Automatic annotation (TrEMBL):
CDD domains reported for this sequence: MPP_CapA
SUPFAM superfamilies: Metallo-dependent phosphatases (SSF56300)
Pfam families according to UniProt: PGA_cap
PANTHER family to which the protein is assigned, alphabetical: POLYGLUTAMINE SYNTHESIS ACCESSORY PROTEIN RV0574C-RELATED (PTHR33393:SF11)
SMART domains the UniProt entry points to: PGA_cap
Lineage of the species this protein comes from: Archaea, Methanobacteriati, Methanobacteriota, Stenosarchaea group, Halobacteria
Organism: Natronolimnohabitans innermongolicus JCM 12255
Protein name: Capsule synthesis protein, CapA
Length: 339
């Protein structure tokens, strides 16, 4: 039986989400998708906030938004959903300076949630998150090892260096030698864990853009050439099309999964998918399932029939230039990956 690994777009638990959670159950933020999340064999998210009550707002450069969530509820909420890995290379992990970033790292480590893309130094930020999927049933059963490397091209002032905490920042340019060296180093560290599946989680590009630029497509193909099996993109707040290159799915942007953001009536940044990758026990990718979701009341829910239909139409249209075809399974779309 195939193992199912879930991927989501941005999970922002601060501001109004944080306020709302003070008067509702820890797992309420997951709304009607909670059971779907719990049924997965593993779950990887982009955590778009700090987990802390400490720190001061970043003022060294202009930052209009600052996101952090109280770890007293946020960490149990991540545990309730079965989150196994967090990508932290993004433009909000340092919103409340180093103290809040350090709290975030500590809280995730204490909870046993793997993380990548940020750390005390660039050396730590380049370390992969390694998640064991399945196994644990005794006998000779062994899990599928998934290594996740996380990078961002957002907010260069948040970049870690040899002595300062921050993110694994890169320029999205496959011809840039510094980028190539940094990415290759991270991928090599991931390979040293002997993973069955290698994932690159990228927080790239500007907000509210519906199509990836050609430079991102070229970079994605270069990552596949470098041995990456899955590309998990996010940052735009709206989902973008999916491309399959040499059997590797490239999710250019997974959109938003849960937040408190104002909704654009045309781009519908409140609508996206839970992306579920089916993987055989030997690491062979079988298919990618897209289960429609929508945000309401600072929580994520299964999409209404109308919202689901809109998201399916839009995903088909956005993916058509890449030659990606979908099958329909109930409310979901499915991309076959087996050759």
């Amino acid at each position: 039986m195939a193992l199912r690994i879930g991927f989501t777009g941005d999970v922002m638990l601060g501001r109004l989400v944080d306020d709302r959670q003070r008067s509702r159950s820890v797992d309420a933020v997951w709304g009607t998708v909670l059971e779907r999340l719990r049924e997965l064999d593993a779950l990887v998210i982009n955590l778009e906030c700090a987990l802390s009550t400490r720190g001061k707002k970043w003022r060294r450069t202009r930052r209009p938004f600052h996101f952090r969530a109280n770890p007293d509820w946020a960490v149990p909420a991540l545990e309730a959903a079965g989150v196994d890995g967090c990508a932290l290379a993004n433009n909000h992990v340092l919103d409340y300076e180093e103290a809040a970033l350090r709290d975030t790292l500590e809280h995730l480590d204490t909870a046993g949630i793997e993380r990548s893309g940020a750390g005390e130094t660039i050396d730590e930020a380049l370390e992969p998150a390694v998640v064991t999927v399945g196994g644990g049933d005794g006998g000779d059963a062994h899990g599928l090892e998934v290594a996740v490397c996380s990078f961002t091209d957002n907010t260069p002032e948040y970049a870690a260096d040899a002595t300062s905490p921050g993110t694994a920042w890169i320029e999205i340019d496959r011809e840039n030698e510094e980028t190539r060296e940094r990415v290759r180093e991270a991928l090599e560290r991931a390979r040293e864990t002997d993973p069955d599946l290698l994932v690159a989680s990228l927080h790239w590009g500007p907000n509210m853009v519906t199509e990836p630029p050609e430079s991102f497509r070229a970079f994605g193909r270069w990552l596949v050439e470098a041995g990456v099996d899955v590309i998990h993109g996010h940052s735009a707040h709206v989902f973008q099309g999916i491309e399959v290159d040499e059997g590797a799915p490239i999710l250019y942007d997974a959109g938003d999964f849960v937040d408190d953001y104002a909704v654009d009536d045309d781009l519908r940044n409140d609508r996206s998918f839970l992306f579920v990758l089916a993987v055989a026990s030997d690491g062979t990718l079988e298919d990618l399932r897209l289960e429609p979701t929508e945000i309401d009341g600072c929580a994520v829910h299964e999409a209404s029939p109308d919202a689901a239909a809109w998201s399916r139409r839009r995903m088909r249209a956005l993916s058509e230039p890449f030659g990606t075809t979908f099958e329909r399974d109930g409310e979901a779309l499915v991309v076959p990956l087996e050759s």
